[in-house]
């Protein structure tokens, strides 16, 4: 089970005993780090932030690396800041994008901010009152009263166009291969993000910005502003962009993003995503997405290599992340739901599934609609298997399978004389038919 979550209480002037940078390095979470950052963080409690895109009212697992960095930072005794990009979300970051995205209105961004803070509360301590309690900020709060003339006078004059054009994110969008050019709005993004760093440095003593490796250019614009405007020293640390061994995009399924919100991605599907990772990916991900120690992970890797078919790495990874994002109860239910497909379950287990999980478990399984009125006298098995649904090819085949005792209703074996009634309904809507061990069919009762 996951390691306990604790918050270190440190005086700001106390020498730090836990090396944050080294912790990230052995976990494979450092791509670039500005010289001097490690020593800077060992001197005393520092502030660091990551920017979070507020374009949805839930985080997805693509955000998890940044969130894990913040949590490691807090566990090392430092003060984490989560910056929700209310202002930058109205502009759009060109980094890694091939086209300009749709912009959001203020009301939507505020709603998304509150939802994101609630999710972050599972990872970070905002409420303890300790010196290193986390803080959530929104750059719209300090950018909304900035006039265009003030911004270009007070910020823009310190960064040359040559400097901005040299950034990879700009070069890619202006290259001959780009499908679209770059709007002035997007071009100024790095200045706005750079000013965020300057603002947090001046007002919150925040001296480190962290993010994905594609953010290095934007982050260093901030360190440059800190140097040119205030004569101070800011630091940058980036993590690698997470990839999958098979070349497909991390955090995506055929259905889209894997969300942290249980309403968007059920705990069952969330658990399955991690359980189905490859051996190579699981060995990498368990360092990044859990708080297991190096000793624990080394032991797990050895155990897995001795018996890869038991998938010890994948199972522990899926357990740890599901509990961290959801709960122990959600993990237990996800495991029960997973067992349903492999014959290790009962009718009672099936009826405990909520509608979303039921549909997730039996995604892609053939369905047929029957009227609820047909269940009042009882739907006979021949009709349920063949005549009214087409699950089996003919009435004769249905009779043969029933005589061979290979048909189940909601995981219980039935004979030809069995009648399906309202008492069989799962979530007042579904009946699960099964032939043999793996051949399923769902009756949707309307």
UniProtKB/TrEMBL annotation:
<dbReference type="InterPro" id="IPR024107">
    <property type="entry name" value="Tyr-tRNA-ligase_bac_1"/>
</dbReference>
<dbReference type="InterPro" id="IPR054608">
    <property type="entry name" value="SYY-like_C"/>
</dbReference>
<comment type="subunit">
    <text>Homodimer.</text>
</comment>
<keyword id="KW-0067">ATP-binding</keyword>
<dbReference type="GO" id="GO:0042803">
    <property type="term" value="F:protein homodimerization activity"/>
</dbReference>
<comment type="function">
    <text>Catalyzes the attachment of tyrosine to tRNA(Tyr) in a two-step reaction: tyrosine is first activated by ATP to form Tyr-AMP and then transferred to the acceptor end of tRNA(Tyr).</text>
</comment>
<keyword id="KW-0436">Ligase</keyword>
<feature type="domain" description="Tyrosine--tRNA ligase SYY-like C-terminal">
    <location>
        <begin position="360"/>
        <end position="442"/>
    </location>
</feature>
<keyword id="KW-0648">Protein biosynthesis</keyword>
<protein>
    <recommendedName>
        <fullName>Tyrosine--tRNA ligase</fullName>
        <ecNumber>6.1.1.1</ecNumber>
    </recommendedName>
</protein>
<dbReference type="InterPro" id="IPR001412">
    <property type="entry name" value="aa-tRNA-synth_I_CS"/>
</dbReference>
<feature type="short sequence motif" description="'HIGH' region">
    <location>
        <begin position="54"/>
        <end position="63"/>
    </location>
</feature>
<dbReference type="InterPro" id="IPR014729">
    <property type="entry name" value="Rossmann-like_a/b/a_fold"/>
</dbReference>
<dbReference type="GO" id="GO:0005524">
    <property type="term" value="F:ATP binding"/>
</dbReference>
<feature type="binding site">
    <location>
        <position position="49"/>
    </location>
    <ligand>
        <name>L-tyrosine</name>
    </ligand>
</feature>
<feature type="binding site">
    <location>
        <position position="252"/>
    </location>
    <ligand>
        <name>ATP</name>
    </ligand>
</feature>
<keyword id="KW-0694">RNA-binding</keyword>
<dbReference type="InterPro" id="IPR002305">
    <property type="entry name" value="aa-tRNA-synth_Ic"/>
</dbReference>
<keyword id="KW-0963">Cytoplasm</keyword>
<dbReference type="InterPro" id="IPR024088">
    <property type="entry name" value="Tyr-tRNA-ligase_bac-type"/>
</dbReference>
<dbReference type="InterPro" id="IPR002307">
    <property type="entry name" value="Tyr-tRNA-ligase"/>
</dbReference>
<keyword id="KW-0547">Nucleotide-binding</keyword>
<feature type="binding site">
    <location>
        <position position="189"/>
    </location>
    <ligand>
        <name>L-tyrosine</name>
    </ligand>
</feature>
<feature type="short sequence motif" description="'KMSKS' region">
    <location>
        <begin position="249"/>
        <end position="253"/>
    </location>
</feature>
<feature type="binding site">
    <location>
        <position position="193"/>
    </location>
    <ligand>
        <name>L-tyrosine</name>
    </ligand>
</feature>
<comment type="similarity">
    <text>Belongs to the class-I aminoacyl-tRNA synthetase family. TyrS type 1 subfamily.</text>
</comment>
<dbReference type="GO" id="GO:0004831">
    <property type="term" value="F:tyrosine-tRNA ligase activity"/>
</dbReference>
<dbReference type="InterPro" id="IPR036986">
    <property type="entry name" value="S4_RNA-bd_sf"/>
</dbReference>
<dbReference type="GO" id="GO:0005829">
    <property type="term" value="C:cytosol"/>
</dbReference>
<keyword id="KW-0030">Aminoacyl-tRNA synthetase</keyword>
<dbReference type="Pfam" id="PF00579">
    <property type="entry name" value="tRNA-synt_1b"/>
</dbReference>
<dbReference type="GO" id="GO:0006437">
    <property type="term" value="P:tyrosyl-tRNA aminoacylation"/>
</dbReference>
<dbReference type="GO" id="GO:0003723">
    <property type="term" value="F:RNA binding"/>
</dbReference>
<dbReference type="Pfam" id="PF22421">
    <property type="entry name" value="SYY_C-terminal"/>
</dbReference>
């Amino acid at each position: 089970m996951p390691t306990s979550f604790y918050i270190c209480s440190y005086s700001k002037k106390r020498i730090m005993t836990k090396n944050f940078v080294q912790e990230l390095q052995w976990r494979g979470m450092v791509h670039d780090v500005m010289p001097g950052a490690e020593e800077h963080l060992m001197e005393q409690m520092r502030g660091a932030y990551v920017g979070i895109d507020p374009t949805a009212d839930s985080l997805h697992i693509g955000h998890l690396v940044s969130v894990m960095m913040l949590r490691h930072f807090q566990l090392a005794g430092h003060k984490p800041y989560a910056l929700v990009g209310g202002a930058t979300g109205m502009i759009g970051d060109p980094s890694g994008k091939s086209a300009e995205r749709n912009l959001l209105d203020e009301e939507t961004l505020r709603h998304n901010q509150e939802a994101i803070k609630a999710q972050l509360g599972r990872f970070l301590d905002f409420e303890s009152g300790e010196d290193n309690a986390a803080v959530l900020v929104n750059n719209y709060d300090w950018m909304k009263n900035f006039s265009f003339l003030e911004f270009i006078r007070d910020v823009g004059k310190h960064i040359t166009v040559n400097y901005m054009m040299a950034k990879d994110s700009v070069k890619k969008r202006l290259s001959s291969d780009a499908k679209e050019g770059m709007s002035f709005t997007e071009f100024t993004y790095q200045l706005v993000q750079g000013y965020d760093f300057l603002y947090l440095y001046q007002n919150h003593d925040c001296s480190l910005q962290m993010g994905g490796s594609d953010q290095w250019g934007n982050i260093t614009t901030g360190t440059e502003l800190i140097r040119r405007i205030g004569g101070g020293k800011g630091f940058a640390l980036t993590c690698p962009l997470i990839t999958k061994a098979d070349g497909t995009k991390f955090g995506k399924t055929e259905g889209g993003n894997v969300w942290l919100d249980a309403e968007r991605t059920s705990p069952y599907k969330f658990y399955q995503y991690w359980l189905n990772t490859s051996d190579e990916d699981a060995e990498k991900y368990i360092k990044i997405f859990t708080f297991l120690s190096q000793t624990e992970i080394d032991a797990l890797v050895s155990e897995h290599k001795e018996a890869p078919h038991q998938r010890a790495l994948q199972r522990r990874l899926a357990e740890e992340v599901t509990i961290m994002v959801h709960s122990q109860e959600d993990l237990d239910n996800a495991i029960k739901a997973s067992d349903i497909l492999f014959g290790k379950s009962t009718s009672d287990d099936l009826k405990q599934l909520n509608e979303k999980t039921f549909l997730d478990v039996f995604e892609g399984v053939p369905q047929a609609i029957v009227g609820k009125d047909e269940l009042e006298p009882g739907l006979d098995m021949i009709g349920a298997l063949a005549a009214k649904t087409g699950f089996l090819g003919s009435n004769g085949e249905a009779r043969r399978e029933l005589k061979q005792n290979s048909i189940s209703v909601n995981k219980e074996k039935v004979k030809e004389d069995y009648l399906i009634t309202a008492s069989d309904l799962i979530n007042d809507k579904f009946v699960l038919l099964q032939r043999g061990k793996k051949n399923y069919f769902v009756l949707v009762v309307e």
